[in-house]
Structure formats: structure tokens, C-alpha cells
């Protein structure tokens, strides 16, 4: 693991050797500084190793917890890092959780908590064996809630511990990395890897604070905050009408109009929607300047206008993160930007695909190999298997559609039905491959409805003709 990942700091649990032997191993692994908690009887000890380009100050140390403040010269690291070994016995484990709660009271910056907790957050984190008592699960969940910690997304095996008993194998996710909201905001790219166990019944955990994966070209995405701008409909109208009508190919015409809208909206957005956080900071700075010195009537009016602009910027920022969070049970309007932002970070990290297993059982990690495997899978999935006679099977299926129902179903689709269907779509649902969500059509229906309805009716007639 040391050769592959080149860690700056290492945490070892249940060590069975004393600090003298531990130092020899530490030096062989290329580390210069250490902290040991000596083993006591059958209970193993703890060890933290780090390189001399890091400064580690211990705020609290016990046989189960090492709470530190870390500073690094050559890399960006969390302010607080707590290394944890949860005791196997529930009563002792609860006492350790209480210590973590007390430590959390004094943590105001980014905080990473990592180790073997000997506990799980749900029954889904255990495979086989007796179910974990719900009181234990609830107590562990309460720990995360009380300390404002998030369970960091991981890549690798779902479970981190195995009893390795043939015929009675039990696996659980006992090891994990947790971070507070400040950690998630400061280290958006942080990723946890579960490394295959060698010489242990536990997987190793690697926390990469600044994980960099292959960048893909940024795709166009229709932004929800655009529709609130006073010029939005006019921008769409100009772009939509600059494309000439194509009588013989309505699909090509519709695609051309959408492409014109995309280009004009992107250019317009760069002018009207700069970085929200920078705009808010700049406006707040201007507001502070207004409130300094003598407050004249002119300054009071200026401050009032600035507050209005700040409020608009906050609304835009909230809509931006709400759209990306895909949270459907919480709506905009209550300044939930921070919550939405962290939801986006969690979802992005969870959705990253860093490796895939092919049909031969080999893991593919190169981006080109993963892309090729995806293409091959879906080509095979949607490959036609040839037509099959279904008349004999359908003869045994009872007819439940009445003649009257069939006549109603065969009626031509009306414009109002198409409009009703468009406005029933979820405005924040995932957009199509062109990047336009349902919100675009709903917000600009007056400008785009004619061509959209025409194309839909033509497409529907073509489909009906091919089915006859």
C-alpha cells in the first residue's frame, strides 16, 4: 500500500509490537515521525506514522482515539484528523462515542474521522450472520448526527471486514471515513478507497484528499436560475426565430433551433450570471463600505439597493445547487444552498466510476477501457434478436380494452394534451442528451410551442404508420 499510494500519514490499529520494533518498520516504510499507544495484554495498540513535511500535534490520546491537529508544508490537509478504534464490546464502544461527542464541541474547521468503528449504520452493511441489534445501529447513527459527521463515499468492496470462515462467512463494513460539512466543502474531490486485504481480515482504507480523475468535456446544461431573469424569454425568442423553417425535415429544424438557443444562452449567461460566490462577496464588501462613515440619505438608498442585489444573488446560488442536487423533497426558498451543495458533492463522488469488471472477471481501470466496456455492453443489450411470432401467445391473453376505450385511444392527440403533458414533467428531472430540461420548455412555451407541437404530431403519425 505504501508503494502504491505514497501516503503522507498512516494509522495502524491492533498492533501487537512495542514502539521499538514499530520504529524499525516505520523507517523501512519511509516515515520519520510517529506516535505509539503501546499494546496492553491481549489488546493491541495504536500507531500513527507521518513524514517530516507534516506537523502533527496530539490534542487527545487513549487506547481507542488519537485526536490531532495537522499542518502540511507541501499539500492541503484537514485541520483536524481523529483516528479511531472502536472497542468490540458495546459498553466500551459507547464510552468512546461519548468522547468523540465531547471532542466535536471544540472542532470549528474541517474534520476527518477515520478508523475501525466496529459498528455499522444499517443492516445493509452486514452480509450473513445474525442481524445487528437496532439499538447499536441507532446509537452509531446518533453519533454521526451529534457530531455533524457525514459518511464519506467510497470505491471498492462494499464490506471492509470478513471472518474468513468457509461455509459461515460473515462480512461487514466496520471501517470507514467520516467528515464534517466543512471537510466536504473544503475537500470536494476527496475519495475513500477500500484496498484489498493482504495479511489481515480488514480492508485497508486510503483517503485521498485531492483525488484527480480524468476530466471530460463539460456538457451543456440548462440552468434553472436563468428563467427568473427578466430577459430570459427575449433571449430564447431571438435565438429560436433566427433559424429558418425547414418544411421537409422538422426534426432537423427543431434541433437547429435548440442549438441556436444553447449558443445564445451560454453567451448570455457568461455576461449575466458570473460566479455567484464572488458576486455575493463583492456586494457584501460594497455594503460594508456603505455602512462605514456618515450615513447619508444617498448611502442608505445605495445600501438598500445592494441588499436587494445580494438577495437576488442568494436566490440564484440556491437554484443553481438545488438543480444539481436532485433533491425532490426539499424546495428552494429557505436558503438551503449549503445543504444542496453538500448533496451535490456526495452524489458526484458516489456516481464516479473508477473501475469495472469485464466478463472475464478482470478489473479495468483505464478510462478508454471503461468507455469501451460500456459501449460493448449496451450494444449487446439492445441488439435485435430477430422477430418472434406472438400470435399464439396473444391468443391466451384476455382482451380488456373495450371498443369505446379503443376509439378514445385512437383519437388524434390534441395540442392541449401535448401542452398538459409538458407541464406535468418534473422541472428538475435529469435533462435529455441535449442538456435541455423540461423547465426550458415550460418557461418558454409561448416562444417554442408551435415547432415543438408540430414536430411531436409529425413524429407520432410516423410512428403510427410504421406500426400498421
TrEMBL record:
Name under which the protein is recorded: Endonuclease/exonuclease/phosphatase domain-containing protein
Species assigned in the record: Acacia crassicarpa
Pfam families reported in the protein's UniProt record: Exo_endo_phos
InterPro entries according to UniProt: Endo/exonu/phosph_ase_sf, Endo/exonuclease/phosphatase
Domain Endonuclease/exonuclease/phosphatase: 2-202
A molecular function (GO) term: catalytic activity
Amino acid at each position: 500500500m505504501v508503494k502504491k499510494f505514497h501516503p503522507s500519514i498512516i494509522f495502524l490499529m491492533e498492533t501487537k509490537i512495542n514502539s521499538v520494533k514499530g520504529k524499525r518498520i516505520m523507517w523501512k516504510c519511509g516515515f520519520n515521525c510517529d506516535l505509539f499507544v503501546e499494546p496492553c495484554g491481549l489488546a493491541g495498540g495504536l500507531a500513527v506514522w507521518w513524514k517530516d513535511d507534516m506537523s502533527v500535534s496530539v490534542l487527545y490520546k487513549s487506547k481507542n482515539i488519537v485526536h490531532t491537529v495537522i499542518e502540511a508544508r507541501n499539500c492541503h490537509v484537514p485541520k483536524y484528523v481523529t483516528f479511531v478504534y472502536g472497542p468490540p464490546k458495546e459498553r466500551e464502544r459507547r464510552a468512546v462515542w461519548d468522547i468523540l461527542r465531547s471532542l466535536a464541541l471544540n472542532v470549528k474547521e474541517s474534520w476527518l474521522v477515520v478508523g475501525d468503528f466496529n459498528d455499522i449504520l444499517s443492516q445493509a452493511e452486514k452480509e450473513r450472520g445474525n442481524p445487528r441489534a437496532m439499538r447499536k445501529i441507532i446509537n452509531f447513527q446518533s453519533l454521526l448526527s451529534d457530531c455533524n459527521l457525514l459518511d464519506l463515499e467510497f470505491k471498492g468492496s462494499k464490506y471492509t471486514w470478513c471472518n474468513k470462515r468457509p461455509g459461515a462467512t460473515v462480512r461487514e463494513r466496520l471501517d470507514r471515513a467520516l467528515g464534517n460539512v466543512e471537510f466536504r466543502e473544503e475537500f470536494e474531490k476527496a475519495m475513500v478507497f477500500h484496498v484489498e486485504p493482504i495479511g489481515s481480515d480488514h480492508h485497508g482504507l486510503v483517503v485521498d484528499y485531492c483525488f484527480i480523475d480524468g476530466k471530460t468535456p463539460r456538457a451543456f446544461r440548462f440552468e434553472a436560475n436563468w428563467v427568473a431573469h427578466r430577459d430570459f424569454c427575449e433571449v430564447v425568442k431571438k435565438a429560436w426565430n433566427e433559424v429558418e423553417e425547414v418544411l421537409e425535415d422538422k426534426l432537423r429544424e427543431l434541433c437547429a433551433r435548440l442549438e441556436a438557443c444553447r449558443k445564445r444562452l451560454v453567451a448570455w449567461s457568461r455576461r449575466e450570471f458570473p460566479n455567484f460566490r464572488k458576486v455575493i462577496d463583492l456586494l457584501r464588501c460594497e455594503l460594508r463600505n456603505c455602512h462605514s462613515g456618515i450615513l447619508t440619505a444617498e448611502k442608505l438608498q445605495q445600501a438598500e439597493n445592494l441588499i436587494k442585489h445580494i438577495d437576488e444573488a442568494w436566490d440564484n446560488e440556491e437554484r443553481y445547487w438545488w438543480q444539481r442536487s436532485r433533491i425532490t423533497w426539499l424546495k428552494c426558498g429557505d436558503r438551503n444552498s449549503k445543504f444542496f451543495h453538500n448533496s451535490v458533492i456526495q452524489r458526484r463522488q458516489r456516481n464516479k466510476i473508477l473501475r469495472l469488471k469485464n466478463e472475464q472477471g478482470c478489473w479495468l481501470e483505464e478510462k478508454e477501457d471503461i468507455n469501451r466496456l460500456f459501449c460493448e455492453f449496451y450494444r449487446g443489450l439492445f441488439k435485435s434478436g430477430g422477430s418472434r411470432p406472438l400470435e399464439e401467445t396473444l391468443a391466451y391473453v384476455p382482451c380488456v380494452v373495450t371498443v369505446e376505450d379503443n376509439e378514445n385511444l385512437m383519437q388524434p392527440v390534441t395540442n392541449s394534451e401535448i401542452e398538459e403533458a409538458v407541464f406535468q414533467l418534473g422541472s428538475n428531472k435529469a435533462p435529455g442528451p441535449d442538456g435541455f430540461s423540461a423547465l426550458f420548455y415550460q418557461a418558454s412555451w409561448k416562444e417554442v410551442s408551435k415547432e415543438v407541437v408540430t414536430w411531436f404530431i409529425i413524429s407520432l403519425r410516423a410512428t403510427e404508420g410504421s406500426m400498421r
